Input
Amino acid sequence: MQNRLGRILFKSYDAVPNEVDCTLEIVEGKCPEELNGILYRNCPGRMERGGVYYGHPFDGDGMISKFEFVRGRIYYTNRMVRTDWFKAEEAAGRILFRNFGTNIPGGFLKNVFRFKFKNAANTSIVFHGEKLLALWEGGAPHELNPATLETTGIYDYQGVLLNRSLFKYISGAHLPFSAHPAFDPHTGGMYNFGVYFGVKPELLLYMVDTKGKITLQQRVCLDSMGFMHDSGLTENWRVFFLCPLSFKITQMILGLKPSIECAYFDKKRKTQIILIPRDGGEPVKINTDPGFVFHFANAYEDEGGRIVIDGPLYDRFPEFIPVTGFAQYDFTRFPKMLMTRFIIDPGNRTVSSSLLSDYPAELPKINPGRKTHKHRYIWASAASSKWAGPFLTGVSKIDAEAGKTVFRDFSPNLTSEPMFVQRPGPGDEDNGWLILPLYVADEHNSDLLVLDASDLSTVCRARLPHNQPQGYHGSWVRADK
Output
């Protein structure tokens, strides 16, 4: 079964054959008339050039999908993000740029001293300050037309994201702007960060107000290089996990291997938790047991001022698996990702952790109205506890108060990030819907699911006109926005 799921996962990354505008056919249930708004999603829509696959899903060219819900109907549009890198490789018909998990074909002479990676614009998408932005880990966003999804171009926030140091000739023209901004639902502010590798590694802290004005609030020196993909936000703190990931720098510089193959998990080092006051100030650094976290569901402060933050914990950084090797890899070696609660005491500088669920899970979401405040429920793309590997074939609902998990399996089909949408009017924290794509293995196609968030039952299921590769993140925009 593991090898079969590996083949399915590989097949799911087939390039999306076309760009379309259509109304989706509802094949099960009925789309709620009161569900009105737009779900934007980002995924790697193109994973190969000239018959050569990119090495890692992080490297595929971004494709934006727009699902517009209007009084019981779902209108679908998809477009590739036409970055300068995409257009150049499209014209050449081959891989031209180095990336996180991909070297330029042709050996180390093609890659030596090449530090400027392709901005794939493939990780997330946000609508904020009246701008629709496709986000990538290591550079500036790309602005898109919210109605047509046509690419406008790089958006550098009026020059704030321009790299003005001499390192721009090595690392690129723009400062990094993470694909994981955190939002304060009470102020509307967007808090983002970037990890910048200059003379010393730095953590860049941004705040963007509701009108889209950005401030580079602070630059914090890091004690070591690291890969920080997400962060936590509470009423008073910004929370970062600097996990013990090291790099074989010489191999990376000489282009002998892609960057991710040069990364290794150092169990002899601790994970460092970095707490930074939201309004600026000296960071508080606390060491804890080694582990790795890609994503956080939420963070908040309890009555005693302790920080509570939840996210899937890996016991180590997953080793590099080439996309073309998914069907052959022994996924019993892949670390499980288990939803874990960390309780951090900034005053005493202590950390404790406890397991919230024994179902492997990733891409966690909560009711966004609870962000920065105490939440009860977490929804995630999840897997049966018997499976090894990154095979997310279901959806879980974790009740952090009751210590229970409800899991619904769609195996062998593959799920993606579930987006929670609150029902109109007052209601409980789980009174809403989950919207997510489902890759249907036997049909090599994808459906869009709308589930009842309270019990994970199907509300409706709509058929897409093609497969949608396993993607990462999306955003919901209410109809009144």
